[in-house]
Amino acid sequence: MSNYKDEVHLKVQEKIYPPEDIVKRAWIKDYDEVYKRSIEDREGFWAEVAEELHWFRKWDKVLEWNFPYAKWFVGGKTNITYNALDRHIKNGKGDKIAYIYVDEDGNEEKVTYSELLEKVNALANGLKRLGLKKGDRVSIYMPNSIEAVVSMLACARIGVIHSVVFAGFSEGALHMRIDDAKASAVITATYTKRRGRKIPLLPTVEKAIKDLDYIKNVIVWDRDKEGVTDKDDKYVDLNRLIEENKGECSPEEMDSEDPLFILYTSGTTGKPKGVLHTTGGYMVNTYYTAKIVFDLHEDDIYWCTADIGWITGHSYIVYAPLTNGVTSVIMEGVPVYPHPGIWWEYVDKYRVNIFYTAPTAIRMLMRFGDEIPAKYDLSSLRILGSVGEPINPEAWHWYYEHIGRKRCVIVDTWWQTETGSHMITTIPSYPMKPGKAGKPFFTIEAAVVDKNGNELPPNTVGYLVIKNPWPSMLRTCWGNPERYEKYWKEIDNVYNADDLASIDEDGYIMIVGRADDVLSVAGHRIGTMEVESAIVEHPDVVEAAVIGKPDPIKGQKIKAFVVLKVGVEPSDQLKKEIQNTVREILGPIAIPEEIDFVDKLPKTRSGKIMRRVLRAQELGLEVGDLSTLED
Ligand code: PRX
Fold it and tell me: In sequence order, what DSSP letters do the residues of 239-271 get, joined into one string?
């Protein structure tokens, strides 16, 4: 780990105490006491939490741990949509607003818990009528919208496994994800809105499924009523499907371990992996982390700015806010359009209490100056969340001072698509350390170790591992159990997060970044091999290697080293073409900003590209051990 030692060891020790009123209302006031209890009786702890939710049949056993396979709430039967919707309606909260949808133009749509259930039931009935049944897969390629939430919940209502694909991905990425899951249907929209433009989605779906004859239906939210579904029986109008299938749809009694969704995420190897989450444990863990970390109470207005296409959207826009019964804001659009104060305008307008976003967005908004947020009344805010990448102390302080006005707490939540919910995070009742995520959540035993699993002394950077199973852990990788087992078998039979971190004397964990070849561009997780594979699709390219370069706003930007076919001349035009190839296959988030044409790439004798060498050369770092370099 020597490359990282000096670079990282900032010794951030500043402590900032949470305001008294926030501590006073926090669900958990004494972290140490509760943490100790949770470690002593992990199963008892989670059983107590699970009691807060509704089960059609109670579990027989809290945990069955058959390394590395876990089952939680074994024998329990439940449905996450029952806990998200019916339960609140039965408690007299049907008229409460579940979501306030807003777009960039100030259009607004509100939906109550009762109305949401009505739509979910109708769509679930409609999906059944189209022949979908428990265990089938449906891909969802939708704008951040109430319609997307309804689509996800309608699947969950009847046990159909949803696989949401971020609507910023292009046809290649979408095709791969639909094909790997063998989805029987796709739910999409004609377009999504971004920076005042309509970005078409349906044409991308059509290209992605061209030769996938197992797709029976494409269900389309025809936003401008263009009649796009008239052409062919395969196409179904989403709103018509809802309209024509109104009525009760009783929730499928799901086994606790029945799959809820697949979500694809990038890894070191070429193809993204389909992380599988199941019903009971995911429900309990997401519900409880949101309740404690965001300190959710009955009347809270909550806003998570993520997109439903990522795990943050799944857990903390859709499932956890609903199981907690709060009112959420959901926005379609970008943070700087039509003006860079749009988020603060909406925080002010809707009196948002809890605001959850990513450091890349904060760094971007900081650039526009302190006077922008200063124009708005942000006094409703209480809890500010951060997720997706390390938050540098400078961005942390700006968030704290200019958004939180020094009256809020910042919870820096570390977790992953694989973990399903928060794992290491500040909670509102103990002091914050800017730049450090915080302490392990209840029942989680985290450690920083070397490659052999030996724990390292405080303030030493190593691999971040989790030593125990937790309810919302991934259960497998879709169709690839070996890949799943690797998480637990790479380092001494503990879960390897593939992140680098250090732990200080007080038990606060600082996340340094990825240990593997995964990039984090504006908080989006992108595999180097995915980008490389897209680049070599260009007919003039023989080989490519991709690295991440530090970027003050996006965290990292992508740089590619490209070997061209013999006789092809490098040119700016060619760079543009390569960028376009990546845009078409993967989407704008994966475009290499810089491209260098080179004669060859550094490789090991076994032919693996040594990206580490390129990175070191590019950034002027020490190259390290070169003994495996080919020549
Ligand atoms: O490197 C860590 C970083 O994001 C990775 C997980 O990415 P993904 O599965 O896309 O999920 C992102 C949203 C949960 C991690 O391996 N990461 C996530 N949260 C933090 C973070 N890095 C530092 N601090 C965080 N709070």
Answer: HHHHHTT-S--PPP-EETTSEEEEEEE--SSSS
